[in-house]
């Protein structure tokens, strides 16, 4: 968390301010890019490539720094591109955008207090609020508080003033920036993805939807002791403030997690992936932001009190239509059976797959079979790397290096051009599973994925 001197005193919420900031940043970045290109005219090809990568990194770092100061949907768009940019952005760009999650500057308390006074009125006097935020994100920041009457510990998710109204103009600004800096190929697929991000932004700033979704997931998981979902406290909720109970826990990547016995880590890993499986097979909606900041672990005692996963954020929930869910379920079942013919058959009934030549599908099916190898078994999958699955069908995520192997296979695939910008819906689903896979890799879990999906097939 940055100190008080680093905090923003106010946000640039006017369209003119934000437009000028982005235009200035884009122009300077473009000028730097042109200047660096001019210096490589007489260089060797290897030297040109080295200088190009260096200039690209400097350009990206500068733009990301300027974007981070603006907050709002512009930052969120950048974060989304960091998540999915590996499909269509240079590595230097995605690396720079990934830092947006860490460098978002907090809004200073006086500005937050003024905003809370407008939102809560006299109810603000009911609370004692920590001036230092617990967390800072692109669209909001979170402050811990105590209700004076009974000592109830709560958190206030406070949406930055003006960001909801600025979404559409911010989207246009960001798209113009991409054109000026030539970071992203302007294709129909990218336009579709961009429109999806716009819709998601509008959903994410709607705190009534998030409150309802939080309650829905709390109801679904109320009888499962492995999960904790915060309770919504309606009394202090408004259009731009979401109030819920404060829930204790340690971060997923905390060193204490790796100190847990292997079996406890395995159980946490299974619980994290089971959420994704149930979202696909049972609920038809998914929390599509796999950011580790959306999860905590409340440690038990290793005996009577088991470890629990705290699910913190339901702002990025995405509903999927039945056609897509059917395709996703069929792809998982084909991976479960490790059957290439079944995988090819599963790739139908959706525009993305129906547009692919039939001759290309077997090659693409091999990529999907690799991506779903954890759902297979030693008996039906002779291609499993040695030592990644034990006799109890527990998959060793850290040892498998699955994500990097899938990306390598996809890039070499005959169908690689179809992966350049996959359908937005598949990007959300795949990223959720990648998030769950990463969760298990970070805590070094070994899990029986096959068992948890078998009941749905």
Characterization of the model:
The chain has 457 residues and is α+β, with helices and mostly antiparallel strands. Strands 1, 2, 3, 4 and 6 form a five-stranded antiparallel sheet that branches. Strands 5-9-8 form a three-stranded mixed sheet, with helices on one face. Strand 3 (140-147) and strand 4 (153-159) form a beta hairpin. Helix 1 runs parallel beside helix 7, helix 3 packs across helix 7 (167-181) and helix 12 runs antiparallel to helix 13. The chain has helices at 15-38, 45-70, 72-84, 91-98, 100-103, 109-120, 167-181, 188-204, 207-221, 255-258, 262-283, 322-337, 340-346, 351-354, 361-371, 397-400, 402-412, 424-442, 449-454; strands at 127-129, 135-136, 140-147, 153-159, 227-228, 241-245, 285-287, 295-298, 308-311, 317-319, 395-396, 446-447. The model is unreliable at 1-5 and 31-36 (pLDDT under 50). It contains 19 helices and twelve strands. The chain starts with 14 loop residues before the first helix and ends with a helix.
**pLDDT under 50 segments (min length 5)?**
1-5, 31-36
Q: How helical, in percent, are the residues?
A: 40-55%
Number of DSSP helices?
A: 19
- What global shape is seen? globular
Q: Major sheet, described briefly?
A: 5 strands, antiparallel
Mean pLDDT: 83
Distance between the termini: 45 Å
Computed structural class: alpha+beta
Q: Classify the beta-strand content into a percent band.
A: 5-15%
* Number of E strands: 12
Q: Work out the radius of gyration.
A: 23 Å
């Amino acid at each position: 968390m940055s100190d008080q001197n680093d905090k923003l005193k106010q946000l640039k919420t006017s369209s003119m301010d934000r437009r000028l900031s982005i235009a200035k940043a884009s122009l300077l970045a473009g000028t730097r890019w042109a200047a660096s290109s001019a210096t490589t005219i007489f260089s060797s090809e290897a030297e040109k490539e080295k200088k190009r990568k260096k200039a690209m990194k400097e350009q990206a770092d500068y733009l990301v720094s300027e974007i981070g100061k603006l907050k709002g949907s512009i930052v969120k768009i950048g974060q989304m591109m960091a998540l999915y940019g590996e499909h269509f952005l240079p590595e230097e760009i995605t690396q720079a955008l990934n830092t947006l999650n860490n460098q978002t500057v907090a809004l200073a308390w006086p500005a937050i207090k003024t905003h809370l006074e407008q939102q809560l009125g006299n109810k603000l006097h009911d609370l004692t609020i920590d001036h230092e935020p617990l967390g800072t994100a692109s669209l909001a920041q979170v402050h811990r508080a105590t209700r004076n009457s009974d000592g109830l510990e709560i958190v206030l998710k406070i949406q930055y003033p003006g960001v909801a109204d600025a979404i559409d103009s911010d989207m246009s600004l960001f798209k113009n920036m991409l054109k000026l800096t030539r970071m992203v190929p302007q294709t129909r697929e990218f336009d579709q993805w961009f429109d999806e991000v716009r819709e998601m932004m509008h959903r994410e700033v709607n705190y009534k939807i998030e409150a309802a979704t939080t309650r829905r997931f709390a109801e679904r998981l109320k009888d499962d002791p492995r999960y904790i979902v915060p309770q919504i406290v309606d009394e202090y909720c408004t259009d731009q403030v979401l109030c819920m109970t404060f829930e204790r826990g340690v971060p997923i990547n905390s060193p204490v997690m790796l100190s847990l016995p292997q079996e406890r880590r395995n159980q946490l890993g299974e619980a994290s992936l089971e959420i994704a499986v149930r979202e696909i097979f049972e609920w038809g909606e998914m929390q599509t932001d796999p950011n580790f900041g959306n999860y905590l672990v409340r440690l038990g005692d290793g005996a009577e009190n088991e470890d629990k996963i705290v699910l913190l954020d339901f702002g990025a929930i995405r509903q999927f239509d039945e056609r897509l869910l059917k395709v996703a379920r069929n792809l998982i079942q084909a991976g479960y059976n490790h059957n290439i013919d079944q995988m090819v058959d599963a790739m139908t009934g959706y525009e993305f797959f129906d547009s692919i030549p039939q001759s290309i599908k077997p090659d693409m099916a091999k990529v999907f079979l690799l991506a779903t190898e954890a759902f297979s078994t030693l008996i039906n999958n002779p291609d499993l790397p040695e030592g990644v699955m034990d006799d109890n069908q527990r998959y060793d995520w850290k040892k498998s290096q699955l994500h990097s192997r899938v990306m390598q296979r996809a890039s070499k695939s005959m169908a690689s051009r179809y992966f350049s910008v996959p359908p937005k819906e598949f990007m959300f689903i795949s990223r959720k599973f990648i998030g769950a896979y990463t969760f298990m890799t970070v805590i070094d879990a070994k899990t029986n994925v096959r068992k948890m999906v078998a009941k749905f097939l």
